[in-house]
Amino acid sequence: MRLLVTGGAGFIGSHVVKILLDKDHAVTVFDNLTRGHQDQIDDRASFVKGDLSDQEVLEKTLKNHDAVIHLASFIEVGESVKKPVEFAENNILGTVKLLEAMRRTGVKKIIFSSSACVYGTPSKTPITEESPMGIQTNPYGITKISMEQFCMLYSRLYDFDVTILRYFNPYGPGELHNPETHAIPNFIKAALRKNPMPLFWKGKQIRDFIYIDDLSEAHTLPLNLTGLHIYNVGTESGVKVLDVVKKIFKLLGYEVSLDDKGERKGDVPKLVASSEKIKKQLGWNAKVNLEEGLKKTIEFYRNHLSSN
């Protein structure tokens, strides 16, 4: 298939692009590079520097493509609390413009990168796809719900084939956000530099950490689906953040001090996936356990920091 990947120069996008290319798909990356990195794009992919706000460029780029994998969005929860208007404009309006460009060019299949945050603060775990949308604690979550709803609307109104993938907590090599707000890269970089490790909520939160290769693989499986589908993508294993810190210390063979950052607005105490649906329907499974994934991630940052 000929696929357009929005946000394909980002952390998740660049990994998805590589896996798609390895499976012999033709890939065009569409990214404005404000948060992505062009040197992370696989050389086998075509690249168009463009913004979701530019519908004319979108329509021109979309011609002759079979489907879109939509990963272009602002993702930092804390930043969304500070900049709700920017998040709404980029995430929600950008998605609507993309869907309109798809409709006008006859590209009617989309795989959308959503998030477990749409569940808000869940009343129970593991979370299934039938769990209710919870009360949102940050603007990022609201934008993801809105983006999902627009994708569903285009499925109903215009017969789009829509697959929504609700990620839990991705991590792995190649995560180079600036600023970086995700726990694992910040933990590893601090430890490698022998700096105090930043820790919110004293590490009591429980998260479902999924390795980037496993998450990326999930994007290749729904390409032939028709209709509307929603899947959680997680390991089904909840880990206390403080235990992740301890695993990193064990793998490094030393410890650093902890920098107690207190509470952080927008966080929820526990997120753990039920991924039974994607396992049964698409045959997907998380293959990389946390220790193996942390080893690979530590090695990436060790090499990255030594070369910068």
Question: What's this, in brief?
Answer:
The chain is α/β, with parallel strands linked by helices. It contains 10 helices and 13 strands.
Topology readout:
Elements: E1 2-6, H1 11-22, E2 26-31, E3 46-49, H2 55-62, E4 67-70, H3 77-82, H4 84-105, E5 109-115, H5 139-158, E6 161-167, E7 169-171, H6 183-192, E8 197-200, E9 206-207, E10 209-211, H7 212-217, E11 228-233, E12 239-240, H8 241-252, E13 258-262, H9 276-282, H10 290-306
Parallel strand pairs: 1-2, 1-4, 2-3, 4-5, 5-6, 6-11, 7-10, 8-13
Antiparallel strand pairs: 9-12
Helix pairs in contact: 2-4, 4-5, 6-8, 6-10, 8-10
CATH structural architecture of the domain at 2-171 and 212-234 = 3-Layer(aba) Sandwich
Principal-axis shape equals globular
Strand content: 15-25%
Largest beta sheet: what is the strand line-up? 3-2-1-4-5-6-11
- Determine the fraction of residues in helical runs and give it as a percent range: 25-40%
Using only C-alpha atoms, the radius of gyration works out to 19 Å
Average pLDDT: 93
Helix-and-strand structural type: alpha/beta
CATH topology term of the domain at 2-171 and 212-234: Rossmann fold
Reported for the largest beta sheet, the result is: 7 strands, parallel
CATH H-level superfamily of the domain at 2-171 and 212-234: NAD(P)-binding Rossmann-like Domain
Total helices: the number is 10
Distance between the termini: 37 Å
How are helices and strands ordered from N to C? Answer: EHEEHEHHEHEEHEEEHEEHEHH
Report the strand count: 13
Write down the CATH class of the domain at 2-171 and 212-234.
Alpha Beta
**Which regions contain 5 or more consecutive residues with pLDDT less than 50?**
none
